[in-house]
Amino acid sequence: MKPPSRASEPPRVVYEGRYQRMVVRGHWEYSERTHPGGLAAIIIAVTPDDRVLFVEQFRIPLQARTIEMPAGLVGDVDAGESIEQSAIRELEEETGWTAAHAQVLMIGPTSSGASSEKIAFVRASALRKVGAGGGDPGEDITVHEVPRTGAAAWLAERMAQGYELDAKLWAGLWMIDHNLDGSPREP
Q1: How far is Cα of residue 79 from the mean position of the Cα atoms in its chain?
Q2: Which of 38, 47, 72, 78 has its CA 20 to 30 A from that of 149?
Q3: Is 68 exposed, middle or buried (0-12, 13-18, 19+ CB in 10 A)?
Q4: 119 C-beta neighbours (distance < 10 Å), count
Q5: 51 CB contacts (<8 Å, ≥6 apart)?
Q6: What is the span of the domain harbouring residue 95?
Q7: Which DSSP string do the residues of 1-50 spell out, in sequence order?
Q8: Between 168-177 and 151-160, two packed helices, what is the crossing angle to 10 degrees?
Q9: Residues 1 and 88 occupy one common structural domain
Q10: Is the domain of 167 the same as that of 77?
Q11: How many domains does the chain have?
Q12: Residue 187 resides in a domain
């Protein structure tokens, strides 16, 4: 399929902040991340006692509390940091758990009509509790450790209570028990 002719026009930056810039290309408006690579990581983490780690926080754009899997920008602290290193750092910062291993499962766009940002789904393994979590100063993150077998029902309850749920949660839950080809994942 041939892209529209305006897609080849150079982008015009109409606003740039610390973390995002607003760009116009032809008739299309979208945002870009300002850090190198424009990539974020969502961390799929299950504790040794089979609990899924979720974080709850107030998100200003939604003006609501959200439930998400731990996540963060790749390379915003150190431009040379790998996806795996960023994921482990963010996991520890947000939840107080660290991981001995991190595996990138897939990378794809978060909202291809509104942003050039991509997200890496990262499976963290061999978890160990090292702190309280809660995020950086200024963040108000509540950590939830939910039994894996009841995680979907727990999320549905939070949605019924009015929380905003990141749609990527459902993909992350699926990836706990499956390989990308759909086959069951070995524990």
Answers
A1: 18
A2: 72
A3: buried
A4: 19
A5: 145, 146, 147, 148
A6: 35-177
A7: -PPPGGGGSPPEEEEE-SSEEEEEETTEEEEEESSGGGEEEEEEEB-TTS
A8: 170
A9: no
A10: yes
A11: 2
A12: no
**What CATH number is given to the structural domain containing 62?**
3.90.79.10
Pick the more confident residue, 144 or 78.
Answer: 144
Instruction: Give me 181's structure tokens.
Output: 């080809």
- Tell me which of 41 and 18 has the higher pLDDT: 41
pLDDT digits (tens, 9 = 90+) for 70-121: 999 998 888 889 999 999 999 999 999 999 999 999 999 999 999 999 999 9
Structure tokens at 131: 């702190």
45: phi then psi, degrees, rounded to nearest 5: -135, 130
SS3 185: coil
- Token pair, residue 143, equals 């950590």
